Amino acid sequence: xxxxxxxxxxxxxxxxxxxxxxxxxxxxxxxxxxxxxxxxxxxxxxxxxxxxxxxxxxxxxxxxxxxxxxxxxxxxxxxxxxxxxxxxxxxxxxxxxxxxxxxxxxxxxxxxxxxxxxxxxxxxxxxxxxxxxxxxxxxxxxxxxxxxxxxxxxxxxxxxxxxxxxxxxxxxxxxxxxxxxxxxxxxxxxxxxxxxxxxxxxxxxxxxxxxxxxxxxxxxxxxxxxxxxxxxxxxxxxxxxxxxx
Length: 245
Description:
This protein is mostly helical. The chain has one domain (2-244). Helices cover 69% and strands 0% of the residues. The chain is built from 10 helices and no strands. The protein has helices at 2-23, 25-43, 51-68, 81-104, 124-127, 131-145, 147-163, 180-189, 198-214, 218-239. α7 packs across α10 (218-239). The longest helix has 24 residues, at 81-104. The radius of gyration is 19 Å and the shape is globular.
């Protein structure tokens, strides 16, 4: 009897999720990103020795939301692997070189009027240089190349790039639909996510948007985004350039 009630409850929950996904296509694309941001805030509340757990939680938690709504996701499309490799490493170079160019021009500080101050800290100061540091590094890079590209591309490219054209009927628009307001507007809004790298955030988002308009494939942009993050974190850890951490 208990097993039957459990199965019935699970089925009822699945039906409710299915109806919600059908009724709210915007929520399908926004929810994973919102959950990721909420869980990201936990990191600031955790002591350094438990940062790794908070990182793992936001990765698993946000991807779990994607999985819950998996039947309602838009088509993923082709990965265009060779092109994604070139674009991903190109975007990493754009982010890295662009930041130093903005620094040289006096525009490398925190986004104007954004609260708080830009700070650069070596994580080894709080984590040490041993196993705890490397566990944190591995999990942070792992989340950056798995969860982050998925939840951000669903939100920025699949949802917001179309929603800024027609918010109430965005799902009727094809992926990669071009409009100057959404093309530039999403790039400008991305600075709220990257206040310490706001200048290169605009450049990178314009680049990603252009790629998506050219090849309207979510798999392609997710792979590009993942390779960008992988290249940046590899550089950060290899040379200790913690400004990009």
